[in-house]
Here is the input.
Amino acid sequence: MNKKEQEQKHKRRVRYKGTHPKTYKEKYKEHQPEKYEETIAKVISKGSTPAGMHISICVNEILEFLQITPGQIGLDATLGYGGHTKEMLKCLDSKGHLYALDVDPIELPRTRERLEKLGYGPEILTIKQMNFANIDKVAEESGPIDFVLADLGVSSMQIDNPDRGFSYKKEGPLDLRLNPEKGTSAADRLKEVTQPELCGMLIENADEPYAEEISRAIVAEIKKGTEITTTVQLQHIIRDALSFIPMNKRKDDVTKSCQRSFQALRIDVNEEYEVLYEFLEKLPDVLAPGGRVAILSFHSGEDRLVKKSFKRYFKEGIYSEISPEIIRPSAEECRINSRARSTKMRWAIKA
Ligand SMILES: C[S@@+](CC[C@H](N)C(=O)[O-])C[C@H]1O[C@@H](n2cnc3c(N)ncnc32)[C@H](O)[C@@H]1O
Here is the structure.
């Protein structure tokens, strides 16, 4: 290196990193909402979800429909952060019982602890690590259920934690399992998938318009001997597969295709359609007469299944009433919580 080069190298300014935490792990205050209320309030007021937290969607709409009264038996099929659970427990006013399920062995103990600290112990709340496809097993213990809520999909804690592999934006293992202790990770799933199967998965699970190009690129990479083990690796393969898109729309299209492809893989590895179908089939048998169910879904595939099941059982007289149309969160809620934007709520009442 000559003198001039040495001087130039020496002069290069160190990039200012800023004072705000950027990575998931650096956001230690957001991971302790009880201790840092002010920081949490600030993050929420900016329209973001603090790391390690989930903002519940359509709370008012759900409570208005469920009409929970003290003494009832309820089921939150998707506990998550416990936001909806907490609101439903308030309505029970220490009388009756709420069952809450989640398949996630990582977040469930944290939520249990949080709710216990709020005074919701086993006398009023039973939390089970269980798939909601098995609601019949819950009903064996609980008896007929007066109200059920299912808030489908993933929580913000799961999406934001790079170790879970749910987000294409953050480097992490390509896992995407709600329960990483069971089943097959997305990385392993890709090893065995054929191009037509992957193409079908992208179309069926996410209406991906570039399914053909993306599936060809992924399978070609695997055939070359590449092991696709991280989120960013997959994101780069998708980006490169779409390099034919004109520059002016490429960035947007790649972002959307990444979102959809990750969604398609997530649905596949967690068998989300299969378990939702089973849940919907078993629902009428676990509901008490007049029992109410509300379901929040986040993409068209899920909503189609809910709509079909509700309509069929309504026609058969098993449900006395179903929501005539989709209920959406208010514009204000979508402004505060961008994750609410794709929410579709439907409800049904058992005859
Ligand atoms: C959108 S979050 C629920 C958030 C929750 N309503 C709240 O207010 O905090 C969805 C949760 O459902 C769980 N989940 C998804 N599919 C499930 C299934 N088949 N059985 C049980 N839990 C499931 C996920 O692990 C996730 O924690």
Notes: The CA atoms of residues 334 and 341 lie 5 Å apart. Residues 54, 56, 78, 80-84, 101-104, 107, 131-133, 151, 153-155, 178, 275 surround S-adenosylmethionine (CB under 6 Å). The first strand starts at residue 73 and ends at 76.
